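hey m, so remember when u said the tokens were messed up on ur end? i reran from scratch. heres the input so u can diff it against urs
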Amino acid sequence: MNMSEPNNFAIKIIGERINPGFKSTRALFDNEDLPGIQALAVRQAEAGATYQNVNIGARALTDPQFMTRVIQAIQEVVSTPLSFDFPSKKVQEICLAAYDIDKAGGELPIVNSITEHRWDLMELYGPYKFKVILMASERLEEVDGAMVAKGNKTTQEIYSTAKRAALRLKNDYGMPLDHIFIDMSVSAIIADTEGLNRSTVEAIRLIGADPELKGVHMMGGLSNIGQQLPPKAADGSDLKHCLENAFLTLNVPHGFDYVLGTPWRGYEPLAEDHHVLTTYRNFLEQTGSNALRAVRKFYKA
């Protein structure tokens, strides 16, 4: 893999904190603490979030009125456009109906997320207009005469799925390419013996260089990349955060321009000689047991 990088770095954040996966946010939902949710939305906006992802968990299916109240409460205090995170057409329709585009400065919301086997969400594109997060990690494949969902592992599988689905949105629905956010599904390195990180990195380069896909955004949640690793790298730095920044250092110049993350976490490129960046570059070249040995070099001098 050619690891030479252009010199440009620009990243925007889709705020992730309005999500019951965070214990403090789950408590806000459990207590129906709308002022607390509003304060969290304000904090994300003040920290520079370009969008704010909204996910209230399974309660969205059983208590749609609460989902509506949460959206309305958020839009009372911030003008940041929202991303609605739930794999249900019913829930997404509730969210889109509750969304006030005027309070978001005319900006469309995002439906998070669409896959080839979850295309029914696009039935909402007639009554509503929205942008989409499109998952590149899964494809539909014919098996014994039936179409089944398959996970993507290779560069070509990721790239082909992303291109096929993005052009379908453009050609069949008239969706502008810059309304499409391709989620590149960054995986943990701790047990990546199959080169999944390398496949993602190489697919980002292919998508970014494809003239037919000019204008699409690429994004992902980075928190998985350092899962189950020690907190400190061999050089004493914050290992997990440095890994996130190493990934961005390599991929932002090729079109990876959005992170689903915490706005105040702070993302920046690493110096070329940074221990975590040089180790990550080496890790990307390895597979099997060599990849596991490369991982240990992150936290063992």
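this time it looks ok to me. The beta strands are 12-18, 51-54, 82-85, 110-114, 131-135, 138-143, 146-151, 180-183, 217-221, 256-261. if urs says something different then somethings off w ur setup not the seq
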